[in-house]
Amino acid sequence: MIQQRKRRLAILGATGSVGRSTLAVVAANPDRFEIDAVAAGRDAAGLAVAARRVGARFAALADPSQYAALKAELSGSGIEAAAGEDAVIAAATGESELVVAAISGVAGLRSTFAAVQRGVSVAIANKESLVCAGTALMRSAAAAGTVILPMDSEHNALFQALGDTPRERIAELILTASGGPFRSWSAERIALATPEQALAHPNWSMGAKVTIDSASLMNKGLELIEAHHLFGVPAEQLGVLVHPQSIVHGLVRFRDGALLAGLAPHDMCVPIAHCLGFPDRIASGAATLDLAAIATLQFEQPDLGRFPALALATSVLRAGGAAPTVLNAANEVAVAAFLAGRIGFGHIPAVVEATLEKAVGRISMAEPDGIEEALAVDHISRKLAADAAEERLSLAR
Ligand code: MG
Predict the structure, then answer these.
(1) Whole-model pTM?
(2) CA 239 – ligand 1 centroid, Å
(3) How remote is the CA of residue 2 from the centroid of ligand 1, in Å?
């Protein structure tokens, strides 16, 4: 067998759910990869364990106050430690050939952009960077010759089903949604759901933010905006189907009526392995999908009445401009307020909608032309969303 040169990776968000699954896929393919850099938010001990396990050259934490802790955890390892936003950028722009952008939320924006500008391969799990500044991000990627690999499971399935298909042959791209823990709940019950109930996802084990977004279906709305930018397809040609088994992740409907579906077990290691190995196929460690045991695949239309977040995100996708950036910021603030027990689950879409209304007239609603504009819109939107959340609270008193 010919000895293959190892692919050098940077893993941003190494201590999160996608980051840990990425490290598991790397561990399952020891001859394929070496790790240039790992980065995380503030978990010094967790990052040090990951860096030591894979023999990283460089480890970076976003939180500068954790520098001493990281340095101590890595002492004697020979792994370089750094902290602060510039350190995370350095992790994204080191000697890697493939960057896994898996930091959750708008916190991942700068490092994702830095990676995309290098002309290497970037596997994007940070959907917020595409939602907030998708046009600018895809333009930067094209200018630099960067290969964008979608790591989000639905987009990864669509990417695989699409291949090199010219866009004019496509009628529709359909993303599936599990429906989350409240798929069969009444609107009244959903409005009063607790964080514990919203965090109990039936199929996927993920970080808190995306799990709450999956319960409200905001996640699917963000993913429609993500798909619009990744695949250059307009809102009219993007659809959602609720599919409780989470086996079919995405479907491409062609002009002639034929459909190609992407099926996989609901295990993030599958899309991660696809991105890490692309265009080759490598072991993911996922269990073999037993379709006979699953036996039935169900599909249904999403209920926009019970899940208004999806309706909001769809209208924001159609509106375009800065609206998706505002929606994303407002949703991050609302989800944090819900997880902190400050607002109810039913208030999440209400806060997002109120923020979008407040933004008109206060913010230029033109599409952000780059990362700085997107971050400026994000910053103001967070303040407006905090006000909107406070107003919900005083209404409830
Ligand atoms: Mg997804």
Answers:
(1) 0.95
(2) 14
(3) 36
